Amino acid sequence: MTRASQLYRELFMASTPLMDTRAPVEFNRGSFPTAENLPLMTDDERAQVGTCYKQKGQEAAIKLGHQLVQGATKQARVEAWIDFTRRHPEGYLFCFRGGLRSQLVQQWLADAGVHYPRVPGGYKALRRYLLDTSETLIEAASPLLLGGMTGTGKTELLPRLPGSIDLEGLAHHRGSSFGRHASGQPTQINFENQLALALLKQQHQGSFLILEDENPMIGRLALPRSLYLKMQKSPLVLLEAPREERIERLLQEYVIKLQQEFIDRDGQLSGPANFGGHLQAALGRIRKRLGSENYLKLLKILQEALACPDEKLSLALHRRWIEGLLDRYYDPMYHYHEQQKSERLIFRGSATEVQAFLQARNQPSHPLVNE
Questions:
Q1: How far apart are CA 269 and CA 33, in angstroms?
Q2: In the chain, where does DSSP find H-type helix?
Q3: Of 88, 311, 314, 362, which shows the fewest CB atoms inside 10 Å?
Q4: According to the model, what pLDDT value does residue 205 have?
Q5: Digit-coded pLDDT (tens) for 131-145
Q6: Domain boundaries of the chain, sorted by first residue
Q7: 80 in Cβ contact with 86 (< 8 Å)
Q8: Positions marked catalytic
Q9: Sequence-ordered list of residues with C-beta below 8 angstroms from that of 103, at least 6 positions apart, any chain
Q10: Which residues contact 197 (CB under 8 A, 6 or more apart)?
Q11: Which residues pair with 35 in a beta bridge?
């Protein structure tokens, strides 16, 4: 391992605070979980300097950059950087390639009496390290998958299992038509970065890898192809739960908690209406698979539930369309896919039974640990 790679590993393993000095448009495309965007230049300033560089060369571009960021503007940005260094004395700063921008920020900090380290190679090198490390770890991994019908509580169980990575949590999506959150998903880059970090830290803990059985896409985010292909050959443990328990869990996730997300985001007036539109759109996305007759029946119940002023009666109506969704969509689809994976099934049971099985399997003396 090179000295730079060792540094990158240490930064990520320690969750080191990082000052991202790139422009906001670059930061918004993707950065790292511990990064805070304190740019040298705004998006407009960066665009002007970039155009100048193409037309007149580097020297002219640097001169323009100094003209754009001077006086009170410069002072305000230096003060923001100094505040970051005070809050995070153990941190590092970076730009895209570890070049002029981060060098300038580091120099201006030094001029103010603050000496702060810079990441060699910048964002590009950190990102490359994560992608390469992720592929290496995926190649070496022997995942075990946690599956089960919709509503059995797989997401609730995962955090209690050593060696687990919650892919849906990283993707901020529950993995179905009704799985969208009010706040949306991260960018593909941020999802990949977070997954790589989770793999790196999970490997450091020494446990075997447990993942939820997923499709290649979680919402609009794609799993690394190498990971998905490996998952298709991995042993499978199925979590089971009583039907009524599943309905109540989905009522909490799809209705009660999600409606509150929309209210928190959009306010008490717009939130409920936007939540209702969200549910109807989710049902509409699976209309073809439901068939027109089933779709219209469930839509009618859903609309009655949304319009009902009595909370108790409204929840009872929500239970009805959720029950219909399980009977006419999720469960038949699950049974079909379970048949395709039957040769990989190694255990099935309740949450308590599955947890006990996996904890036993995680012991070094267990015959299946090195299978």
A1: 33
A2: 3-13, 24-29, 43-56, 58-68, 71-87, 100-111, 122-140, 154-157, 167-171, 188-205, 225-231, 243-250, 258-285, 287-290, 292-307, 311-325, 331-340, 351-361
A3: 311
A4: 63
A5: 999 999 999 998 999
A6: 3-130, 136-361
A7: no
A8: 95
A9: 118
A10: 12, 32, 33, 130
A11: 18
Compute φ and ψ for 164, nearest 5 degrees: -90, 150
Q: Give 160-197 pLDDT, tens digit per residue.
A: 998 899 999 999 999 888 989 999 899 999 999 999 99
What is the rounded CA–CA span in Å between residue 96 and residue 26? 9
- For the cut 50, the answer to whether the pLDDT of residue 113 exceeds it is yes
Q: Which two tokens stand for residue 288?
A: 């073809």
CA distance 79 to 197: 31
- For 310-338, write each residue's pLDDT tens digit: 999 999 999 999 999 999 999 999 888 88
The radius of gyration of the chain from alpha carbons, rounded to an integer in Å, stands at 25
At residue 31, φ and ψ (nearest 5 deg) are: -150, -145
Q: At what angle do helices 188-205 and 122-140 cross, to 10 degrees?
A: 60
CATH no. for 3-130: 3.40.250.10
Closest CA to 127 of 274, 259, 8: 8
Amino acid sitting at position 266 = D
Q: Using an 8 Å Cβ cutoff, are 203 and 137 in contact? A: yes
